Task: structure prediction
Amino acid sequence: MTETNSSRRSFLLKSMAAGLGLSTLGSLPLPAFARKSNMKLGLVTYQWGKDWDLPTLIANCEKSGLLGVELRTEHAHGVETNLSSRQRREVKNRFADSPVTCVGYGSNFAYHYTDQAEVRQNIEGTKEYLTLCKDIGATGIKVKPNGLPEGVPKEKTIAQIATSFNEVGKYAKELGQLVRVEVHGKLTQQLPNMKAIFDQVTEDSVKVCWNCNDQDLMAPGLEANFNSVKHWFGDTVHIRELNVGDYPYQQLMNLFNGIDYEGWILLEARTTPADRVAAMKEQLEIFNSMTNA
Result:
């Protein structure tokens, strides 16, 4: 980001804080809004932002106070690898002229397939989108393992996934990007399996993106599962609505506070509220309450 864009963003953040009646923004690069925690709430365009074009998405994030966004693939914002160099600069400038941070890109690339040509296709696709992330001013791409195929030894698939992560991770590091591995997939979202994968990951640009699955609560429990992979946490976490279901979000926030986590907590909402901006504001209020606990 240029010095001009950085100053512009700082001005926008301070103006937003003043408009919300917040007098203690200080010199923080992003608005902590007087929270004790340094965690920040943002949005994944999974459902609530899927039909918003880019100007609308940025405007609605500004209105709600969710000042970070992970752009999901094949959504209405249209940020894909077919963008020209000029269009990529335009996307980057839109974010630079806003208090909203483009955290990264949410892809569906995965590397567990038995067909090695499909694995290679996913690796090369990841690299193309990592270049896009760099060009638009984002800092990384979300990928995932998505299962352990039947009929293949688990250890073989785990090693294949880790090897793929190492290849795309090396490429990401050269671009100054991160590979954020969503804890995902019928079997791979079980934390012992995710740990087994990361035990073979050698690139420090490859990070775990916690995903708030029911499997997190399997024995030996949330805290133990959290601790088993916290060494690899990056700067993104996916949550669902904080007031829906029975996932122990307050305990999770306490655990992240306990390790002084300073990354993005990204809302991957699944409900269909009549007013999504109002719903985003509500989630921010709940989040602030939980992170002040």
User: Anything to note?
Assistant: Residues 154-175 form the longest helix (22 residues).
